[in-house]
From TrEMBL:
GO terms for cellular component: cytoplasm. InterPro entries: P-loop_NTPase (IPR027417), TGS-like_dom_sf (IPR023192). This is G domain-containing protein. GO terms for molecular function: ATP hydrolysis activity.
Length: 272
């Protein structure tokens, strides 16, 4: 899908796109107002906000089933403030698609289902333990377990209807209880559609169409050409050279918009 390519574009990194090992990088958030404030206030240091990205280097396929991916990757997913689903839309016969064909909406749906299946597995195991605990606890201790059971049963029913936890309206107490589990569908989700250079003229219309289907509470879609963005970030600071690439579609700004979206996702996560 081009996850590592986009990771390199965002972080100005040079991670091996063939490696399945996790990569960690940091991107600074572009904020033009920061320079204005610095010129007015003359601080000793100007430190822009940053977003940390982790490229897990593995597919979420099988995440919710018996072929679940390794513990290290699960820990990284659980600890993340937000998730990015990179979906392939570019054509390259030298890189076979894992499913054998290109289908953006199918791949988005598959990833969403895998995240939901993972959360359902956690809920199912916890409900079994609660059921056992309720049989042996004192009446005074049952209230908390019963409330947790009620919440998890509700989450389970919604997930089975393909409604992610991030879209649910929960009370403050319910949100605190749920936070202990680090559910994947509770995290803000940014869907990144990785297009080819020839698709750049249609990028805005494709993004708008997909957002009409997938833009929800704490989730949305953004399109970018990962290969071109990576090439641009790895150029020397030759303004003329960069300008030549910008003529292909003025896509250099997309990584800036992406990093801003990443920051907004973190804020959405921390405000819950």
């Amino acid at each position: 899908s081009g996850k590592t390519t986009i990771f390199n574009a965002l972080t100005s990194g040079k991670a091996d796109t063939r490696s399945l090992a996790p990569h960690i990088g940091i991107a600074k958030i572009p904020e033009p107002r920061l320079k204005v404030l610095a010129d007015m206030l003359h601080p000793k240091r100007v430190v822009p906000a940053e977003v940390s990205y982790i490229d897990i280097g593995a597919s979420v396929k099988g995440l919710g089933g018996d072929r679940a991916i390794g513990g290290q990757i699960l820990n990284q997913l659980s600890d993340a403030d937000a998730l990015i689903d990179v979906v392939r839309a570019f054509t390259d016969e030298s890189i076979p698609h894992i499913e054998g064909s290109l289908d953006v909406e199918r791949d988005i749906a598959t990833a969403n289902l895998e995240l939901a299946f993972y959360d359902l597995g956690i809920i199912g195991r916890r409900l079994e333990r609660i059921e056992t605990s309720l049989k042996g606890t004192k009446a005074t201790e049952r209230q908390g377990l019963a409330q947790e059971q009620q919440l998890l049963t509700k989450l389970k029913a919604d997930l089975e209807k393909e409604v992610p936890i991030r879209e649910l309206k929960l009370t403050a107490d319910q949100a605190r209880t749920m936070a202990n589990y680090q559910f994947l569908t509770a995290k803000p989700l940014l869907i990144v559609v990785n297009i080819g250079e020839e698709q750049i003229p249609q990028a805005a219309s494709l993004e708008a169409e997909l957002n009409s289907h997938y833009s929800r509470a704490k989730s949305g879609v953004i399109t970018l050409c990962g290969e071109l963005e990576m090439e641009l970030t790895q150029l020397d600071s030759d303004a003329a050279e960069v300008a030549q690439h910008l003529k292909k579609g003025e896509v250099f700004r997309v990584t800036h918009r992406f990093n801003i979206s990443g920051a907004e996702a973190l804020l959405a996560r921390r405000q819950t």
